Amino acid sequence: MTCTEFLALLDELMDGTVAAETRTQLEEHLGGCAHCTVTLNTTRKTIEVYRSNELYELPKSVRERLHQAIVARCKNGC
Amino acid sequence: MSTIQVTGEGEQHPDVALVASAVAGDVQAFEKLIRKYDRQIFRIAQHITQNREDAEDVVQDAFLKAYEKLDQFQGNSKFYTWLVRIAVNESLMRLRKRRTGKMVSIDEDIETDEGSVPRDLADWSPNPEQNYSQTELAKILRKTIQGLPPGFRVVFVLRDVDGLSTEETAEMLGLSVPAVKSRLLRARLQLRERLSRYFRSKKAGEK
Ligand SMILES: [Zn+2]
Questions:
Q1: Chain A residues with CB inside 8 Å of B34's CB?
Q2: Which residue in A55, B64, B144, B189 has a CA-CA distance of 20 to 30 Å to B11?
Q3: How many C-beta neighbours within 10 Å does residue B126 have?
């Protein structure tokens, strides 16, 4: 397996949707390829860091204002 | 129109009852739907428009549009899927307004060299985010994702931040499943490559 072939299956590997046989091949490639090991680990970390940090918080005051505006117009039949 | 029964697990999604009550005129039921999803809609709108005012408008308009068309909503798709689809369209409309003359579309397939075999292969420190304050980190993450094309950003946010399936994401964006997969891979790899600048482990003597 080449690095390009490995990369093509990276998402399936991370999402756990890869067939057992393919997984073994991927793991074999990882065992001998430091580049792909780094790519896999840091890509995982990328997702984790985006998942655990809210970048666009909706402030409470804005939230309430939006709610009131939406509901007021809904009650008027829009 | 015949009613489409969602068979399978036999369990009805809680939104189905809320939507039915809202259609029957229960505004409180609709309020529950707003409270349930407003933060996610705001986040998606911010990622697409990159403008706070626009994102707030999108939240408002998406819910109002959904309310108006609620009787047309078919139970064969999830309410949230349908709502996101409305919000994505509203967001793109606003983005186009701000960038007149520039093509803005979700299905625009941007070919980039990035996303093929990664160039920067430096490993990261064990917990690289700990080298930054919460504010600094958020700034880095925002700046990094803003460098991606809108169609990549939104796929990444729906799949990896919101945790939706490839199929749902495809339905929300009106894209094919392979298109979502290819964008997701490139988005992930591009973000990874760009974050390396901040997260790579420093060799001794490096500052
Ligand atoms: Zn490799």
A1: 67, 70-71
A2: B64
A3: 8
Burial class (CB in 10 A: 0-12, 13-18, 19+), B16: middle
B141, amino acid identity: L
**Predicted TM-score of the model (pTM):** 0.85
C-beta atoms of A58 and B123 within 8 A: no
* pLDDT tens by residue, B84-110: 999 999 999 998 888 765 555 656 555
Question: How far, in Å, CA of B59 to CA of B38, rounded?
Answer: 7
Number of domains in chain A: 1
Residues from A contacting B (CB-CB < 8 Å) are: 3-4, 7-8, 10-11, 34-35, 38-39, 41-43, 45-47, 49-51, 53-56, 58, 62-63, 66-67, 69-71, 73-75, 78
Q: Please give the residue range of the domain that contains residue A14.
A: 3-75
Q: What is the CATH number of domain B6-98?
A: 1.10.1740.10
Domain B105-207 has CATH 1.10.10.10: yes
d(CA B189, CA B152): 11
Q: Where are the domains of chain B?
A: 6-98, 105-207
CA B85, B86, B92 angle in degrees (round to 5)? 90
